Amino acid sequence: MPVPVPRQRAIPAVECGQAPAASPDSGPSKEQAPPGTHQAENAATRRENTRENPTEKREKPTDTSTENSTGTSAGTSTSAGTDRTPAPGVRAESAAPTNLTVLLIEDDPAGSPIVPDLLDQSGKPIRVRTARNLTEAGRLLTDDVHCILLDLALSAPAPARTNTDGGGSGNGGDAEGDDELAVLRHVLELAPRHAVLALTSSSDAERGAEAVAVGAQDYLFRDELDGRLLSRAIRYAVERKRSDSAERRLAEGRLRAQENRRLERGLLPTPLLAGSPLRFAARYRPGRSRALLGGDFYDVVRTPDGTVHAMIGDVCGHGPDEAALGVELRIAWRALTLAGLCGDELLGTLQQVLEHERSDDEIFATLCAVDITPDGRRAGLCLAGHPSPLLSRPGMPARLLPYDNNGPALGLLPGARWPRMQVELGAEWSLMLYTDGLIEGHVGGGRERLGQDGMVELVRRQRAEGLTGEELLRATVNEVRELNGGELADDLAVVLLDRTA
Has this prediction a pTM greater than 0.90? Predict the structure, then answer.
């Protein structure tokens, strides 16, 4: 069975040996190859003829560009009189594979090659395609082209606009200076991912420097070219373009990351506790990798009457949509709290916000809200499907606040109610609000979870060691992660309010 020859691009008819080469007058473009490549090509063709089915259909020519050896006219082969056209029905193999392909854009009417023989670093020939204008260049500029050699003497493209005053081409009085590099600008727009080398005369080095300033990787003097210099310049230009592109993508990625971090930091709350004797601490860890914000949210504000309101919540899910919804609920809670709402009225309004802003009817949010009286000895507690806070007092073991009147999560039941419970705090206390990310981590390598009881014992032990505030939260979260055997899968938020006598 014949083995198909893989092809990475559409091979011109003459290149693949299916049609005779056209004369210079019959085709607008040509492709140059170093001497000796035709012999290798004919050898490859003979090998292919012995393998392939002679009855296989011949592909139709799709390209009119021609290929010639250095020093011969287009369409003429001088390689020992061999005929590059295979027998009918036989597909020929192209020339030996090369590492680099170069597109030369120049309009020399004599057709004399200005590019000498080129070899890459491994000694393989560099394939050169030639286009005499930008239209041909656009047709020959395929993905396998690595570098463009542009003759700056090429005629500039015709202007795309006309003078609205009826005075001709529309180029202003200073357009002549701009048109000197108009062809280069056009090529850079046509091939933004390709390396470009500008060719100019040795007497016009200033134009070459301007070409580099516009965007070319380098410039060379047309009348001083030699194969070794040009081959090295092409390799350097290709690598420089790759390096510049990688550096630009890296810089763009860093900029986007910085903007995202600034945005996410801005979405995290700034507690409003001015004038309150309570101390505040918080820890926040999103479950999403490389994210700063998850579906958990919290906030603490002090209203003008001296009451301190604290809230923590959790939107089901871990993605950016859930994070955005959590931010909306937090901002809505702050606005409603500062407007004087609390308890059942506040949670009912929050549920309306959730129902309007969520992307799916199945999305819900749990929430715990407390309002601490100005003297700091009592608090009101509302739970909407959320774990109850943990209260610690001197001389007494840490315990969970009552959760018998826990109402449903926001977004589950239309017209739901959330009773407000009164809780005695005492003169000195520590109140910890948390999301289920803190209690749903595993213990060891098994399937057992930490749970609320495990968390209570953990906090009791940490407080017995004298830890408070930020140190207590840091040690608690770190131990929960260690018990889980690594990073927690769920978002985690913890808020700690302390009052000292």
Answer: no
